[in-house]
Every structure is written in structure tokens, then in C-alpha cells.
Amino acid sequence: NAGVTQTPKFQVLKTGQSMTLQCAQDMNHEYMSWYRQDPGMGLRLIHYSVGAGITDQGEVPNGYNVSRSTTEDFPLRLLSAAPSQTSVYFCASSYGTPREGYGYTFGSGTRLTVV
Amino acid sequence: KNQVEQSPQSLIILEGKNCTLQCNYTVSPFSNLRWYKQDTGRGPVSLTIMTFSENTKSNGRYTATLDADTKQSSLHITASQLSDSASYICVVSALNSGNTPLVFGKGTRLSVIA
């Protein structure tokens, strides 16, 4: 049971480049989300999905796109990278919504640097 | 505004000693509170969940308490080990906060030294 798998673990981008952060889970979780973690700040929600075909914006969605074509996969796309997007990105999944008390399983993160 | 404040920001203790981490929140209406442990370079892992009616919950050497009246929670670590070195994050869930029901604290960085 792999849990939540994120790739790549590290990435350096030039300003203006685009890329996709991959996230896959094998626990049949309906709820998936993307967070970014910056020094001195709590994790902030970028986008989330309550099931295949359904996505919605979180707290800091600008500059990012998501899609959910399958239950397993939830990729995060950076459209035109900016230095402000330098951060550690975490994908997380849960059986039900966190509001109802279901805990997240987090991936190990992607450390992104935009130069 | 819903907020979660954790203290201290960082803490250094000797192996074998006990410590207590604090979490104060203003999230309303309250649904539940979780403590996560995040090792360096890894994603957070859930330690405990507290609901409104629970005062104390243990998970091995970790004991969480909740005072819903004062909106405070604590995480007590007993007989600390080197492997307890990590960041501990308090996360509070609101019942009806639109797209962002979870409010994350900034974490307490714990270092256990020999």
C-alpha cells in the first residue's frame, strides 16, 4: 500500500515555465487536495476535489490549475511559474471531508524553486 | 477571523524529558482538532483527533487535551525520544467555512537532544 505518491520530489523552474506536479493515491479516497507550505506560515489550501470530475478552489488558487479525471490522480499545474510560487507542495487525500473529522494522508512533498 | 496560534515556536529538550505544546484557536463553529507530526522533509502524519465532547486522548507517549470552553488544546509528550524531533502542527476544523474548513497552525519545532 503506497499511500499518496508525489512526483517529482524536487524541481527547479525558470520564471514563466509551466509544469505539472503529479499526485496519485491507492486508497480509493474520494477527497484530495493540494497545499503549499511556506516558512513561518501554516499550510494553505490551493485546490481540492471531492470526487472524480469535481474540483474547487481553496485559499490560494491563483496561478494553479487542477483536474480530477480519475479517483486516483489529482495533478497540479503551474501555468506560468513565478518566484512567489517557490514553496513545498503537499498533496493529501482522505476517505471523507476533513470537516467531518476524516484525517488526511499526506504525500512526502515536492520542493519547487522558481528562479 | 478563524485562527490557530501555537506556542512555543520552537523547543529544545533533553532525551527522556517530558514537554507540552500549546494550541489556542478562535475557529468557530468548532468541529474537531487534530495534531499532526511532521518529520523534516516529509508530509504531516496524524497523531490524534479531538471532538467537542472529548477532553483527553492518548496515542502511546502522546496525550492531547482539549478545553472547548477556553478554546485551548495541548499535546503532552512523555519520556521524549530522539525520534520525536519534528514539527507538531495543530489543525482545527470549522463546521461551515466554505472551501477552507481547516485552519492550520504554524507548528512548534521540537528538537530532542541526547
Q: What does this 3D model show about the protein?
A:
The complex is a heterodimer of chains A (115) and B (114). Chain A has 115 residues and is an all-beta fold. Helix content of chain A is 0%, strand content 48%. Chain A has no helices and 11 strands. Chain A is globular. The model of chain A has no long low-confidence stretch (mean pLDDT 94). Chain B is mainly beta and 114 residues long. Helix content of chain B is 0%, strand content 58%. Chain B has no helices and 11 strands. In chain B, strands 2, 4, 5, 9, 10 and 11 form a 6-stranded mixed β-sheet that branches. A 5-stranded antiparallel β-sheet of chain B has the order 1-3-8-7-6, with no helix packed on it. At the A-B interface, strand 5 of A face strand 4, strand 5, strand 9 and strand 10 of B.
Please supply descriptive tags for the structure shown above.
heterodimer; A: 115 residues; mainly beta; seven-stranded mixed sheet; four-stranded antiparallel sheet; 11 strands; globular; B: 114 residues; six-stranded mixed sheet; five-stranded antiparallel sheet
Sheet having the most strands of chain B:
6 strands, mixed
Structural class of chain A: mainly beta
End-to-end CA span of chain A: 36 Å
What quaternary form is this? Answer: heterodimer
Explain the layout of strands and helices.
The complex is a heterodimer of chains A (115) and B (114).
Chain A: E1 4-7, E2 10-13, E3 19-25, E4 31-37, E5 44-51, E6 54-57, E7 64-66, E8 76-78, E9 87-94, E10 105-106, E11 110-114
Parallel strand pairs in A: 2-11
Antiparallel strand pairs in A: 1-3, 3-8, 4-5, 4-9, 5-6, 7-8, 9-10, 9-11
Chain B: E1 4-7, E2 10-14, E3 19-25, E4 30-38, E5 45-51, E6 56-59, E7 62-67, E8 72-77, E9 86-94, E10 102-104, E11 108-113
Parallel strand pairs in B: 2-11
Antiparallel strand pairs in B: 1-3, 3-8, 4-5, 4-9, 6-7, 7-8, 9-10, 9-11
